[in-house]
């Protein structure tokens, strides 16, 4: 049973039992008063009703019952059932269960009858707020239908301080603004579906190496991140503002340390930044091993923790001797239940919690979202000689293990302590907490074979990155044949011998005409095909960082095909930035399609783009460098990780230091072309801009006026090509020097469908926060006086129109 408490009924019950009056509790001496919800210093806005219900429920509890709730227990006297937590923003993930089950018992490997959605990093490549909302709401509805109340997601961070970070597949891109928009949308979508969004990881948990004290990482673990206050706000805390504003009811603090203190026991981080500055009203819960101490965690701001530390006796003794406070305990209990009421989980309609193999099908028509979003996320990086879209090619050859299924799938087992660097099969989901529960998986080979069967295309494949004819010479094992081919007899059974004609340099096909060796090989297949498709991937995930940003076997495969085929199309699916310079300038490589891990419809999404059923519009959420050394931040190998680069990660670094990328942040081609004209930028709230600092009160999401529009920009975008298409228009802002900001920063994006020959007016609403910098001395977001340059274009380095606006004197 879930509590069906309402405020009036609860108030009537207050005199009964050992009720505590939360609003009359004394202020804690160890925490800022704002971090206690009952202090009233954070205006709760649309959380007020939920707060009233939560406070009323808690008011009926004894301290032991409150402790039961904050340690994940149920209290039958008020019908409170422990919340069920679950990983997965890409599907209901099976690796870990909080709540009644210990998270460390990894007994499940996947949920059944759920959808395998695109990873968040792929979703970010759509640059489409509606698609983000649609997918994340569908994800949350599946959690709801399985009886979960809290997701360990969405994931904002690791943000991507370094491209070698192992876990970027789970995040919403490497730009704080893009990431923040997606994170806020995720928090809202989850809440709208009746699920408490548990955003993670808070904060500066930017790499896997030396992450986990309890694991085998190293005696340097967990590492301690140190970022100055300006960087903290402008790069890392930024997206959590959006998450809190979007309705996030829970936050997962990281395993790692900030300034030498564990994140889950760090008062500056949790009570200060999160609960006070951002006005976060929900509960903070720990990543594995994040809690090590009773009072440092409780006073530091952790609200949900282990009964090993938070025993009745210990916490009560702490209250009695002043180490801990009644107000803080009450606040913890309120924060544990407030999100439940906020998202309406008390309305009595949620289905019962079910285990991973129950036949409870929650998928609805979500596969259409997966296919649509997958196609919308794919980024066309190169397209010459009209290679794409394909039009009934006569012959096609597929190369690489990533084109087809892994031998046993689709729910392959990935270790949480490191996977990769590549995957020998089609990769459409991540690992660790980013692991997908696939009900099925459409591979490119399957989707392209279906197309071929309809188009009359002859299709063949070599689903191996390193196959050479000599490898298997004379021993069969190729094309399904198993006989002794040197004997001159046909293999047993009819096999599936490819009916290929002889290629340049090739010999007769063994087993078919008494030949003596197998010579079909990658060059041979490449020579004979009108279209050569090479499939490559990059894999990493929770528990280990990336060891490479390119892969020799795969790059050799691409080069070998390209040497023999003047129409080589490369498809990349990757967890993060993947370097392409080994072959990108080869003229025989006519097209490159680059994407994240896009879920169960991967092959169909790809085919939609390759054949032009969908005009590609995906954009890079990170910079693809020419060389590894072009990136400025590597994996930190010491106990203290100093973020000395400050705000200068990804394109902010490339722009400041004039490093030319291979493909810049925001880049992506279309099958049509767009013109930009008539940019107009208007100050819409000059009164607000006249004030250096925000004047609004503290509310959920920070000072209220940080969210107010102050400037509006609009631009005309014309599709002057021959096909309809979506254009992702991007607004970048250059601040006055006094603000000490990167060269330019993304501050708006809109994906707009524009038909061939038509134009559209695209409008960007710029909020006060979008033109503010963090004033360390004032400890406020501030507006610098001076000239702001607003530019709109198709990428961070393809700015088409710009206008300067003067703010202040
Ligand atoms: C709680 O305490 C406040 C402040 O002392 C008081 O106004 C309020 O009536 C009390 N509420 C209950 C239910 O006792
Ligand atoms: C808590 O502290 C705040 C700020 O100092 C004050 O306004 C409020 O009245 C205090 N609340 C209680 C219950 O003492
Ligand atoms: C708890 O649920 C039961 C069964 O629905 C109900 O009879 C009881 O009144 C509820 N108790 C409270 C305190 O809400
Ligand atoms: C209860 O909440 C869920 C999730 O928001 C919603 O779908 C459902 O319609 C609500 N039920 C009622 C009776 O309001
Ligand atoms: C961590 O320390 C740095 C350097 O001393 C300081 O600038 C920053 O504000 C501190 N951050 C937190 C969250 O305390
Ligand atoms: C606290 O006491 C309650 C009631 O006796 C008990 O059910 C619960 O398990 C205890 N919690 C802890 C963390 O010891
Ligand atoms: C208060 O009690 C707690 C729990 O027993 C204990 O850990 C702590 O040292 C005590 N503090 C003081 C100041 O006595
Ligand atoms: C690919 O081919 C190589 C060389 O024949 C072989 O060692 C490897 O096992 C094959 N990989 C797969 C996934 O079949
Ligand atoms: C294949 O057949 C030849 C000729 O009969 C024989 O010498 C050789 O040992 C056979 N090889 C294998 C692997 O069976
Ligand atoms: C092999 O193919 C031939 C011709 O299609 C057929 O007659 C024969 O039955 C097949 N043999 C086997 C073992 O499938
Ligand atoms: C391009 O492909 C053709 C075969 O179509 C080959 O002759 C040529 O050498 C290739 N060029 C490169 C640069 O690999
Ligand atoms: C690619 O090679 C094919 C076959 O050799 C040839 O017909 C075609 O013209 C070549 N295309 C280009 C762009 O060189």
Automatic annotation (TrEMBL):
Fibronectin type III-like domain span: 727-796
Catalysed conversion reaction: Hydrolysis of terminal, non-reducing beta-D-glucosyl residues with release of beta-D-glucose
Subcellular location: Secreted
Family listed: Belongs to the glycosyl hydrolase 3 family.
Full protein name: beta-glucosidase
Originating organism: Phialocephala subalpina
InterPro entries reported in the protein's UniProt record: Cellulose_deg_GH3, Fn3-like, GH, Glyco_hydro_3_C, Glyco_hydro_3_C_sf, Glyco_hydro_3_N, Glyco_hydro_3_N_sf, Ig-like_fold
Region feature (Disordered): 472-501
Annotated signal sequence range: 1-19
Main location: secreted
UniProt GO BP: cellulose catabolic process
Presence of keyword Hydrolase: yes
Gene Ontology annotations for the cellular component aspect, listed alphabetically: extracellular region
Taxon lineage: Eukaryota, Fungi, Dikarya, Ascomycota, Pezizomycotina
Pathway it works in: Glycan metabolism; cellulose degradation
Keywords on record: Carbohydrate metabolism, Cellulose degradation, Glycoprotein, Glycosidase, Hydrolase, Polysaccharide degradation, Secreted, Signal
MF annotations from Gene Ontology: beta-glucosidase activity
Biased composition (Polar residues): 490-499
Pfam families documented for this protein: Fn3-like, Glyco_hydro_3, Glyco_hydro_3_C
SMART domains, per the entry: Fn3_like (SM01217)
EC number: 3.2.1.21
Entry keyword Glycoprotein: yes
């Amino acid at each position: 049973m879930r509590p069906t408490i309402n405020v009036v009924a609860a108030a009537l019950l207050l005199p009964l039992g050992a009720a505590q009056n939360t609003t009359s509790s004394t202020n804690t001496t160890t925490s800022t008063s704002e971090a206690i919800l009952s202090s009233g210093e954070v205006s709760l806005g649309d959380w007020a009703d939920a707060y009233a219900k939560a406070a009323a429920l808690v008011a009926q509890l004894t301290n032991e019952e409150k402790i039961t709730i904050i340690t994940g227990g149920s209290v039958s006297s008020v019908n409170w059932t422990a919340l069920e937590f679950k990983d997965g923003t890409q599907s209901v993930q099976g690796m870990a269960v909080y709540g009644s089950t210990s998270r460390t018992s990894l007994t499940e490997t996947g949920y059944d009858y759920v959808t395998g959605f695109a990873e968040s990093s792929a979703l970010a490549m759509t640059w489409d707020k509606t698609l983000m909302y649609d997918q994340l709401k569908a994800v949350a509805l599946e959690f709801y239908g399985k009886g979960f109340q809290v997701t360990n997601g969405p994931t904002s961070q690791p943000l991507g301080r370094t491209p070698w970070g192992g876990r970027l597949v789970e995040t919403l891109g490497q730009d704080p603004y893009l990431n923040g928009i997606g994170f806020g949308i995720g928090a809202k979508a989850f809440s709208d579906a009746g699920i408490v969004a548990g955003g993670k990881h808070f904060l500066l948990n930017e790499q896997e190496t030396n992450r986990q004290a309890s694991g085998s990482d190293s005696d340097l673990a967990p590492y301690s991140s140190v970022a100055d206050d300006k960087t903290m706000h402008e790069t890392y805390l930024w997206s959590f503002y959006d998450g809190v504003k979007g309705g996030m009811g829970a936050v997962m603090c990281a395993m790692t340390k900030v300034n030498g203190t564990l994140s889950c026991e760090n008062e500056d981080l949790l009570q200060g930044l999160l609960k006070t500055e951002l006005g976060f009203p929900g509960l903070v819960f720990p990543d594995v091993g994040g809690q090590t101490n009773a009072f440092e965690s409780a006073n530091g701001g952790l609200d949900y923790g282990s009964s090993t530390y938070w025993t009745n006796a210990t916490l009560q003794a702490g209250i009695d001797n002043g180490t801990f406070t009644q107000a803080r305990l009450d606040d913890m209990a309120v924060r544990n239940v407030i999100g439940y009421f906020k998202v309406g989980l008390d309305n009595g309609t949620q289905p019962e919690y079910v285990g991973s193999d129950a036949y409870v099908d929650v998928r609805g028509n979500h596969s259409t979202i997966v296919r649509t979003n997958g196609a919308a996320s794919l980024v066309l990086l190169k397209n010459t000689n009209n290679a794409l879209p394909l039009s009934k090619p006569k012959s096609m050859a597929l190369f690489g293990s990533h084109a087809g299924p892994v031998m046993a799938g689709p729910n392959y087992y990935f270790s949480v302590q490191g996977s990769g660097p590549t995957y020998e099969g089609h990769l459409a989901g991540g690992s660790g907490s980013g692991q997908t529960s696939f009900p099925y998986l459409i591979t490119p080979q399957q989707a392209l074979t279906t197309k071929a069967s309809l188009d009359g295309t002859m299709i063949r494949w070599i689903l191996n990155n390193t196959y050479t004819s000599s490898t298997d010479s004379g021993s069969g094992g190729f094309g399904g044949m198993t006989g002794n081919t040197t004997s001159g007899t046909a293999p047993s059974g009819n096999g599936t011998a490819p009916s290929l004609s002889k290629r340049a340099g090739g010999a007769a096909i063994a087993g078919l005409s008494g030949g003596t060796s197998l010579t079909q090989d990658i060059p041979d297949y490449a020579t004979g095909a009108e279209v050569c498709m090479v499939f490559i991937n990059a894999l990493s995930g929770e528990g280990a960082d990336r060891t490479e940003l390119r892969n020799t076997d795969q790059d050799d495969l691409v080069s070998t095909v390209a040497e023999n085929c003047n129409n080589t199309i490369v498809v990349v699916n990757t967890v993060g930035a993947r370097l392409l310079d080994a072959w990108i300038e080869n003229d025989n490589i006519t097209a490159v399609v680059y994407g994240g891990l896009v879920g169960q419809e991967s092959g169909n999404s790809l085919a939609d783009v390759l054949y032009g059923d969908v005009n590609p519009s995906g954009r890079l959420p990170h910079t693809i460098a020419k060389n590894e050394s072009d990136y400025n931040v590597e994996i930190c190998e010491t106990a203290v990780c100093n973020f000395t680069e400050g705000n200068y990660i990804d394109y902010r670094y490339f722009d400041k230091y004039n490093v030319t990328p291979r493909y810049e942040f925001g880049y992506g081609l279309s099958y049509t072309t767009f013109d930009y004209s008539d940019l107009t930028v208007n100050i819409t709230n000059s009164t607000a801009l006249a004030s250096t600092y925000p004047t609004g009160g503290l509310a959920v999401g920070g000072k209220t006026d940080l969210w107010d529009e102050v400037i509006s920009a609009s631009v005309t975008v014309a599709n002057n090509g021959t096909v309809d298409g979506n254009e992702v228009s991007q607004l970048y802002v250059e601040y006055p020097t006094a603000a000490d900001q990167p060269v330019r920063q993304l501050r708006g994006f809109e994906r707009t469908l524009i038909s061939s020959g038509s134009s559209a007016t695209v409008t960007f609403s710029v909020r006060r926060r979008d033109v503010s910098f963090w004033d360390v001395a004032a400890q406020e977001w501030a507006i610098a006086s001076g000239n702001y340059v607003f530019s709109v274009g198709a990428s961070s380095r393809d700015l088409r129109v710009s206008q300067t606006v003067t703010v202040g004197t």
